[in-house]
Amino acid sequence: MTHDVHPTTIRILLADDHALVRRGVRLILDREPDLEVVAEAGDGAEAIAMARIHEADLAVLDIAMPRLTGLQAARELASVRPGVRILMLTMHDNEQYLFQALKAGASGYVLKSVADRDLVAACRAAMRDEPFLYPGAVTALIRNYLDRVRDGAEAPEQLLTPREEEVLKLVAEGHSSKEIAELLFISVKTVQRHRENLLHKLGLRDRLDLTRYAIRAGLVEP
């Protein structure tokens, strides 16, 4: 008897910069008959490259990755592979990340510490277009909503555009304008314009200032 692929197999793109974590997550997913990891990536930029090649239904992205964070990769994936569902994987029970993840289009947010318990359910929920949040995240969302209602205000819009934020992260990581241009599929001239805009907008002087800002903004790890 031949073993056919499960009729509704969910094809997964998995991105995490720690090979050991990737292996652990892959083991959790591949144990399930309806889940299959079809591609792995070590950072956000690689995840986008993989999404161009592989047909994936769902991307499971670590939030803190080099070159492009999971949040930045999520925004890019929306244009590269429209319709792909996105789950964020994180070590941090961090409200700020949670809100950014939801804003970037993620349908779920899973803590690595309980991935063996939550991840499979989160994958299936994402494919049903249902949000998946761990209990603490639900509390944070409700509290945030109630605070905004009480203050009669929405959170202020972000200072930087998504593209400026991507350029900022890559500059802070020490990439040259040429490397940034290749990674983001834009011209060197455009990269330089973004750098000038960043310095002007943030009132900063040089790359060192930009790097410090990127660390404070949680775009790169110190």
Largest sheet, order of strands side by side? 2-1-3-4-5-6
Radius of gyration: 18 Å
Tally of strands: 6
Backbone shape: globular
Please summarize the sheet with the most strands.
Answer: 6 strands, parallel
Task: Please work out how many helical segments DSSP would assign.
Answer: 10
Chain-averaged pLDDT: 86
Strand fraction equals 5-15%
Low-confidence stretches: none
Structural class given helices, strands, pairing? alpha/beta
In which range does the helix fraction lie?
40-55%
Order of helices and strands: EHEHEHEHEHEHHHHH
C-alpha end-to-end distance:
55 Å
What keyword list fits this structure?
single chain; 222 residues; alpha/beta; 14% strand
What would your notes on this structure say?
This is Response regulator. It holds the Pfam family Response_reg. Residues 11-127 form the Response regulatory domain. By secondary structure, the chain is an alpha/beta fold. The chain is globular. It has a six-stranded parallel sheet, sandwiched between helices. It contains ten helices and six strands; from the N terminus they run E-H-E-H-E-H-E-H-E-H-E-H-H-H-H-H.
Summarize this entry quickly.
The protein is of the alpha/beta class and 222 residues long. It has helices at 19-30, 44-53, 70-80, 95-103, 115-127, 135-151, 162-172, 177-184, 188-202, 207-216, and strands at 10-15, 35-41, 58-62, 85-90, 108-111, 132-133.
Write the layout of secondary structure elements.
Elements: E1 10-15, H1 19-30, E2 35-41, H2 44-53, E3 58-62, H3 70-80, E4 85-90, H4 95-103, E5 108-111, H5 115-127, E6 132-133, H6 135-151, H7 162-172, H8 177-184, H9 188-202, H10 207-216
Parallel strand pairs: 1-2, 1-3, 3-4, 4-5, 5-6
